[in-house]
Amino acid sequence: MKSIVFAAGLLVAFARLSTSQIAILHIRVVDGEGAIDAAGSHNARPLTVEVTDETGRPVEGASVSFHLPEDGPSGTFGNGLRTDVTVTDSRGRANLHTMQLNRTPGRFAIRIVASKENARAGMVSFQYIAEPKNGAAPASSSRSGPSLVHGRLKWVVVAALAGGAAAAGALLAGKSGSAATSAPASTTPSTSAGVTIGSPTLSVGKP
After folding, report:
1. CA–CA separation, 56 vs 53, rounded Å?
2. Are 59 and 116 in contact (CB under 8 A)?
3. Low-confidence residues in the chain, pLDDT < 70
4. CATH topology for 22-33+46-99+108-124?
5. Hey, where are the domains in the chain?
6. pTM for the full model?
7. CA distances from 110 to 5, 8, 147 (A)
């Protein structure tokens, strides 16, 4: 009789253990899916996930890990790493509040893994880093302005120098022409003008 009661107690304990063990987990995003944030900012909305068992009941105490990409559009969590771990509450929910985004625009995936005892579940949530605003001037335009101004100034200086050279040439030409017209003709000594020598006169006075 005692052996029968003992066996029955083992069966009840085993049944309770079997019913308390979770076989399958389900995970879904409750809030924050497809969020779009500015480049270099913190996420405006927390990412909230819910973990349930095979019957749809919330699973409390499940470990939920979040993983960010190593390159491209990505960021870091509040701990400064690309991986963060939290635990579900009594409603089976886990929240990811802090995420510092980098400045690479585009879509990126956050891998989410939930585990409790021997059961595991995983999924991917997509987030977006927005493109820079259209009002922001590209870096190349800020450099092209001064170069264009310098180019124009260069041609103005060249034109001025060319005009000055032309004016100087004209001035020199004018001076040489005027010198040629105003200079007196070269003269040679006249051969018509001669030297006249008169007859010598000798006067002798009285002694």
Report:
1. 5
2. yes
3. 1-20, 134-207
4. Immunoglobulin-like (2.60.40)
5. 22-33+46-99+108-124
6. 0.57
7. 53, 49, 45
